[in-house]
Amino acid sequence: MVRRSSSLNRTRIDHLEHAHGRRDANARFFLHYGDMTDSGGLNRLVKTVQPDEIYNLAAQSHVQISFDQPEYTADADGLGATRLLEAIRTAGLRTRFYQASTSEMFGLAPPPQRETTPFHPRSPYGAAKAYAHWMTVNYREAHGLFACSGILFNHESPRRGENFVTRKVTRGVAQILAGRQARLRLGNLDAQRDWGDARDYVRAMWLMLQQDTADDYVIATGVTRTVRELVEIAFGLAGLDWTAHVDVDPSYLRPADVPVLCGDPQKARDRLGWEPTISFAAMIREMLESDILAEGLTPRLAAL
Ligand code: F7E
Questions:
Q1: Less crowded by CB within 10 Å, the N or C end of the chain?
Q2: Annotated catalytic sites, by residue?
């Protein structure tokens, strides 16, 4: 499902052949217009498509921006999930539902965070996602829907949006190498995150919907690093001294940040047989290579 916007922003899926709004015998991937704030459209889509599985990753997903758009974030990220669950229930379908929940729901809760850890969200984004999480659990318990909540910690790839910290750093390094900028402005360098690779995490989402029963799972690596360490590794791979290039800009500090996230994925390991396979350094290296290539340069990175 895609949202209408006046300029197309589908570069991340352009390599996939798709048909839009028409039945093309050869296409296996269809895009439909829809919006999480429009229940009529969602109901119609669910009834027409009758999907076997729905993966609800739709969100205003930027934590800092959620402080500026709290109501919209609640509508799209919180109520949006309810609209989809209700669409499945009222259509009487056996559609399996995946809710993209998030480690942001844990917020201030001390690590290691697992499925039983009480939530203490620190942002409108985290609060909206906590509501959507409990609605997913409720539709499973109250209406018997096959609805799973995947509590995913940060997961990254070269397709990560440019204003999330991993991509901002790898893109910043590439632009410094290309001589297009000399400095990179960041916010809280002390925040600690448990970063994994998006491909490993998407496999976990799919696995959740292939089980005999629906349940909730934490997906994480169990390893945490500071933003400072991320910066050190990315600049180090490119042979640069980060202290000569990074400034702390208070405008990137959040009204309330999550200090430390470190997940315990034991349940996913035991029940889904899931393990992360791509290391943090390999992931940052791949993101860096992709951003350096995009600058028209040849990546010459240090060995891992
Ligand atoms: O920030 C700090 C920032 O924006 C990570 C989303 O996918 O993961 C993501 O949320 C940390 C924070 O991700 C900058 O303060 C420092 O402590 O990359 P981020 P996030 O907020 O953790 C979760 C699991 C989601 O569900 C979200 O949708 O890095 N930080 N300096 C910075 N962050 C940004 N964006 N920009 C900076 O300049």
A1: C
A2: 102, 104, 125
